[in-house]
């Protein structure tokens, strides 16, 4: 097992593909192989990502292989597919459809080929079960627009596939969510507050669904290790999906691996204020700024969030 001594400095990532893994409790830099050694007996390994960042996705792929080599009984669960498309994923995994058919039929994300293809192909060629873990996107959007009562409009079939209690909350998560969305701890506008509440319930629906799907995978494949891929907001600080997992299954061992952008300071790596974000951190290069022109950025964000809804929630 290769572990960098605790006294050795953590080397900065040199390219957008590089990641530097650090054990949060000790500050030691670990190789992928050393990380896998430490995680081999863990029930659920949750790898947070910055969607579309090459460093996140390469690390996920390398860890998937390293864990499989130590413990071939593995299940891959992914936020990036929703449970309504499990059948389409199953057809592809069984070799009955082609990749483009799967991408179209299973509603794969736009960056599937660049980001997730290696993970899915490893699972397919090594007969690793693949579980679509997210709630259906249209249902999430409609809950965000109309509130929790929207679920009462669903047919019995799809409603039965969602968690029985889809909006379970955990301490500290709502404050983090509101601050991330608004940049503050709240708003005095009742209309905005109502919309924010619905948006938060949509977030809870995602997290509760992913937690439920992970636990279902554990029941369907006893003794298997779960590798779960998700946007980091759903897992960092052991909040979101992770908090719901540990609430529903307290005896489950869950490890959280959290991304962090590398920044330099007089004291070097900024670890002390980030230890609580995950059991392990992996440092990657920051992404380029989307905008330097603040007015242009405001206009772009305004346009993004004022687009008319294309799905009918009635």
TrEMBL record:
Residues 35-244 form the Haem-binding uptake Tiki superfamily ChaN domain. Residues 293-302 have a biased composition (Basic and acidic residues). Residues 293-314 are annotated as: Disordered. InterPro entries: Cofac_haem-bd_dom. It comes from the Bacteria. This is Haem-binding uptake Tiki superfamily ChaN domain-containing protein. The lineage of its organism: Bacteria, Pseudomonadati, Pseudomonadota, Gammaproteobacteria, Pseudomonadales.
